[in-house]
């Protein structure tokens, strides 16, 4: 069986390319093709991206595009796109725009009447949620909490009223603090910590915040973590299994 020839990229398109969150095997075939065929890669951290490209033997011009230069860089990238260039936007790990640069540049490209094309792939939010065992039908992605204690506390209090599973990102050195805050403000909620996803020491830790703090009292949590909280109230059962409760593809 012969394969159809790979299609080329569409001139004047910004490709949003998801990259691995720990395991290089998670790069998609399409991501590799786009990275090979594009004219330019815009990267959150050029050094990290050079390492990724080198691993897959891809040589490409790379420019930086991070939180501090996204607006200025957008103007330059727009001008390249208007000339018909193809640009791949990547971040250090996972999906661009998810707690990472991307949103502003994507909006600027659409506003300029140009094309954006997603090249989906790894995302810590989706990996953590789908493997957590918590309800997936309705969830709220919180991302990172504010760092300042007042704003952080207010946000955590607000989260009490938000329905569905809550998904938070947290940096390794604030995870202990977050668990302590959850022990105070969400004491009865079941929490899942998805740690080091797709990596050698991947781990899912379950319990209330207090129980997890006890489990980790001797060996503090290290590495990258997604924190998930069960919904505040169990959904009212209709007696139907989730598969029976209506899927968009079900016939009426
Ligand atoms: N854009 C990325 C994505 O699509 O998931 C997220 C980038 S954000 C700057 C980094 C945060 O994502 C980390 O602090 C952690 O909360 C989460 N994260 C990224 N990789 C992870 C991994 N391998 N395991 C667990 N959490 C991860």
State the main characteristics.
Methyltransferase, Cobalt-precorrin-4 Transmethylase, Domain 2; alpha/beta; 252 residues; Cobalt-precorrin-4 Transmethylase, domain 1; elongated; 31% helix; 8 helices; 2 domains; disordered C terminus; 5-stranded parallel beta sheet; binds S-adenosylmethionine; 19% strand
What does this structure look like?
It is a single chain. By secondary structure, the protein is α/β, with parallel strands linked by helices. It folds into 2 domains: 13-122, 3-Layer(aba) Sandwich (Cobalt-precorrin-4 Transmethylase, domain 1); 125-229, Tetrapyrrole methylase, C-terminal domain (Methyltransferase, Cobalt-precorrin-4 Transmethylase, Domain 2), CATH 3.30.950.10. It is built from 8 helices and 10 strands. It has helices at residues 29-37, 46-55, 70-82, 103-111, 124-132, 149-158, 175-185, 209-215; strands at residues 13-17, 40-43, 62-64, 87-90, 115-119, 139-144, 165-170, 191-195, 203-207, 225-229. Strands 3-2-4-1-5 form a 5-stranded parallel β-sheet, with helices on both faces. The chain has a 5-stranded mixed β-sheet with strand order 6-7-10-8-9, with helices on both faces. It binds S-adenosylmethionine (SAM). Residues 21-22, 91, 93-95, 98-100, 123-125, 169-171, 194, 196-199, 224-226 line the site of S-adenosylmethionine.
